[in-house]
Amino acid sequence: MTMQSAAPITIRDLTMAYGDFVVMRDLNFTINPGDIFIIMGGSGCGKSTLLKHMIGLLSPAQGKILYNGVSLWDSNQEQMEQMMRGFGVLYQSGALWSSMTLAENIALPLQQYTKLSKAKIRAQVELKLSLVGLAGFEEFYPAEISGGMCKRAGLARAIALDPKVIFFDEPSAGLDPVSSRRLDDLILQLRDSLGATVVIVTHELASIFAIGNNSVFLDTESRTMLASENPHTLLAENNDPRIQTFLRRGKIKSSKVSPAGSKEENANE
């Protein structure tokens, strides 16, 4: 069973819980091929928990997570592992091994999941570092580079196996506005060059409006989703005060919101 490049991701009647405590219930939405899909909502609403369910770290209390129509959690172990190899994940900190060079970090999944020769792995490592703007940094250790560079190195590792779905957990956390904007641009470039679908957990309005073209809004109080739509459409047309309060933080004005991917500075703090 393989991941297809044009594979939608469907969340169907999903309930997430820790024991008897329900985090979110009745989640239903679809992520289309090539989307930059934003998981958003207030603090503690379950954004990262949803991401963990989608990448195979937490099992649903109820419902299904479908990749190209195949249920991740109803698959056998072998099928599930094969599906998960189609995922790339960038965690908040980058999650690099501090005792390993950048080259060694990025080579790790290639060594573990492919039969490539050392020379071909090295070539792939150099390519992936080049794609994220870190050509020539192969022998650096994580402690020797900046936080933004660590994020990009973590992204290079996330795309080592050319995934069809790339997941980001708060990618802009800890970055200055310029570095955050550069990371947004990089996400767009990688989506296009890899033909990947991108799923991002974030509360950063600038990123949401600059690159997001689809989204789900999770609400802490009701413990369910309020809407799933293009963030620009939510801002312009959805009248729920909880959504409007979240999306209109700062000085955002719907009349000045530009299409997804635009570089107009309309989503500043």
3D architecture notes:
By secondary structure, the chain is an alpha/beta fold. The protein has a domain at 8-86 and 203-250: Rossmann fold (3-Layer(aba) Sandwich). The chain contains nine helices and ten strands. The chain has helices at 47-54, 77-84, 102-113, 118-131, 147-158, 177-194, 205-211, 231-237, 241-247, and strands spanning 9-18, 21-31, 36-41, 62-67, 70-71, 87-90, 165-169, 197-201, 214-219, 224-228. The protein has a six-stranded mixed sheet, sandwiched between helices. It has a four-stranded antiparallel sheet with strand order 2-1-4-5, covered by helices on one side. Strand 1 and strand 2 (21-31) form a beta hairpin.
- Element-by-element helix/strand order: EEEHEEHEHHHEHEHEEHH
Question: What name does the CATH topology of one domain carry?
Answer: Rossmann fold
DSSP, total strands: 10
- What's the overall average pLDDT, rounded? 88
Distance between the termini: 44 Å
* Residues in β-strands, percent: 15-25%
> Which CATH class of one domain?
Alpha Beta
**What CATH architecture of one domain do you see?**
3-Layer(aba) Sandwich
Total helix count?
Answer: 9
Q: Kindly provide the radius of gyration, computed on alpha-carbon positions and rounded to a whole number of angstroms.
A: 19 Å
Largest sheet: 6 strands, mixed
What structural class results from the helix and strand content?
Answer: alpha/beta
Across the major sheet, the strand order is: 6-7-8-3-9-10
What would you call the shape? globular
Spans of 5+ residues with little confidence (pLDDT < 50)? 1-6, 251-269
At the fourth CATH level, what is the homologous superfamily of one domain?
P-loop containing nucleotide triphosphate hydrolases
Helix content: 25-40%
